[in-house]
Amino acid sequence: MPVNRRSGILLHPSSLPGRFGVGEFGPAAIEWLDFLAAAEQSVWQMLPLNPVGADGCPYQASSTLAGSPLYVSVERLRDEGLLTAADLADVPALPPDTVDYPAAGAVKADLLARAYAAFTPTADSEAFAREQAWWLDDYARYMTLRERHGGPWTSWPAPLARRDPDALARLDDTERDRLDYYRFEQYLFAAHFTAVRDHARRLGIELIGDVAMFAGTDSCETWAAPELFQLDAAGRPTAVAGFPPDEFSADGQVWGNALYRWELMAQDQYAWWVDRIRRMTQLYDMIRLDHFRGFLRYWAVPVGRPASAGGWRDGPGPSLFQAIRKELGEVVMLAEDLGPASAEVQQLRIDAGIPGMRLLQFAFAGDENQHLPHHYPTDCVAYTGTHDNDTTLGWWEESSADQRLRVERYLGGVPDGICRSMARAVFASVAELAVLPLQDVLELGPAARMNVPGQAEGSWRWRFRAEALTPGLEFRLRRLTETYGRDRRASTRRARGFTG
């Protein structure tokens, strides 16, 4: 069977340019897709799109199913008649190169309130509310209650915290307008995302979405179904997610997310996860599973203790993926299997038919390893780096002399600079899909790094300006893609997914 060779770019929508403080699913997203198509790219990979807090971390969301209102397009709202030129004239100047999440959130909240006041429900909005009611109703309740009582939800009045039916019925009656507002917000997100997704499909570009492994301890999910999480009778976590000390973090990491009660989820064939993945398939062509090793074993840290005090506990293993395939059929998934991964983890991935990831920045730290391109299988996704790594230029600047020597020996030198040489190696590999962070395409240094794991301050903020996407950049990326047979005209392509 012919190999389905293609390539794409990793860019979170928050990094798109625009005047409203954060990237949106509006004209800038359409222009970005047009650039990708002109450069012969076939994939746009993004991070989770769920609502975020003041630090912008997309892996600590208030809901695993809702979309962030930050991505609702102000310009689309104007074109739809829900905002006026006068509304937009009131918007303060916001930074063009970084995201100030509190400031951008305040601007967007004000504009969405104005749009809601001008909105009359339509057949489409009412159909959306009906079709998505299975998660949307609880999300609207959760957000309304958090607005009224603050957080966490365990501090709410007891009847609301424990979801007493009479208390919820009174909420539905007395707070109908606020509940409808949050449904409206999600309707706009869905409509604007769908317009972008449909444009991508017309261009032959697939979207890769990211499914965070864990839910937040204070989230709609833990409030709506506390029995599915490792919480005590008051809704407080008994242990939280993290990772043990390793070569990348001497102290380990305490992420603080809620942990699942996998044994209880298994009793109904993982219906919660099946529903979540079904929702993701409505949005994306491919789904990246974050922290894949956690499906085999996860690191549980007692509350208030350091990561080193944690221990491994068993995840669901293959039974989860069997349940997903049984209910949903063929779902194209990718596994984030970076870092130390045992043979058991790799076997779980292989048995589930899920391609893994290879990261060129990891290939030169010591002895030969799976991240050297001559070890790649075809059914993998090859990257120079990801959102959790420094940019390739930043990584190179911090590399030791010994590591640089290994890189230059392997790549045959770096005559065009490290970013272009690393990109060439990834694109030349046998991996079916090669992905570059936009920062590496732009050859940017450490100031453009998206995230430093475990460091909330300053992460998730990078944005690019529209003028960065020059004709010269488009030509260079297209030539690289065509040289290594990843352009759409040269490839023998299936409609979706990997050839296996």
Automatic annotation (TrEMBL):
<comment type="similarity">
    <text>Belongs to the disproportionating enzyme family.</text>
</comment>
<keyword id="KW-0808">Transferase</keyword>
<dbReference type="GO" id="GO:0004134">
    <property type="term" value="F:4-alpha-glucanotransferase activity"/>
</dbReference>
<protein>
    <recommendedName>
        <fullName>4-alpha-glucanotransferase</fullName>
        <ecNumber>2.4.1.25</ecNumber>
    </recommendedName>
</protein>
<dbReference type="InterPro" id="IPR017853">
    <property type="entry name" value="GH"/>
</dbReference>
<dbReference type="InterPro" id="IPR003385">
    <property type="entry name" value="Glyco_hydro_77"/>
</dbReference>
<keyword id="KW-0328">Glycosyltransferase</keyword>
<dbReference type="Pfam" id="PF02446">
    <property type="entry name" value="Glyco_hydro_77"/>
</dbReference>
<keyword id="KW-0119">Carbohydrate metabolism</keyword>
